[in-house]
Write a structure and sequence with these properties.
There is one protein chain. With 143 residues, the chain is an alpha/beta fold. 50% of the residues lie in helices and 12% in strands. It contains seven helices and five strands. β4, α6 and β5 form a beta-alpha-beta unit. It starts with a helix and ends in a 10-residue tail after the last helix.
Length: 143
């Protein structure tokens, strides 16, 4: 153990790489908790929709939405979501589930909604990719 600082000094690049990989692993395991937004698996989303009548907000581009979306999902362009807060207030008590293509963008947008007072704002973990991998139904067209 007394030679550890010498090892680090001699192999600074490798040690930096090790620290970076460890940080990424920690972020991978605990990133959901650190984001402050509750991430829901597709099964949990269906339960929330069926039991609490939660509303799904799809923030993908219009083309992607029309090619397949969760049944009864409301499409709001990601750029317009901040301007649509008043429209979403009627779903405040039921819950809002934000979904995007992979789940990365929806976390940021859900955090904005939480800051606006939406306590029941959730994200679909893995986005529409996880929904499709779970073989859950999609509908096509615009709404």
């Amino acid at each position: 153990m007394e030679r550890f600082p010498e090892f680090v000094a001699n192999h600074l690049f490798l040690f930096s790489l090790l620290v970076s990989i460890l940080m990424l692993l920690i972020w991978n395991f605990y990133g959901d908790v650190l984001s402050g937004v509750k991430m829901l698996l597709p099964e949990e989303v269906t339960r929330l929709i069926n039991r609490d009548d939660a509303q799904v907000i799809d923030i993908r581009p219009q083309n992607d939405f029309e090619n397949g979306h969760i049944i009864d999902a409301l499409h709001i362009n990601v750029d317009d979501l901040s301007n649509q807060v008043d429209k979403l207030k009627k779903y405040k008590d039921k819950g809002l589930i934000i979904c995007c293509a992979s789940g990365a963008v929806s976390v940021k947008e859900a955090r904005k909604l939480i800051n606006e007072g939406f306590e029941k704002a959730y994200c679909l973990k893995g986005g529409m990719m996880s929904w499709q991998q779970a073989n859950l139904p999609l509908t096509k067209g615009s709404k």
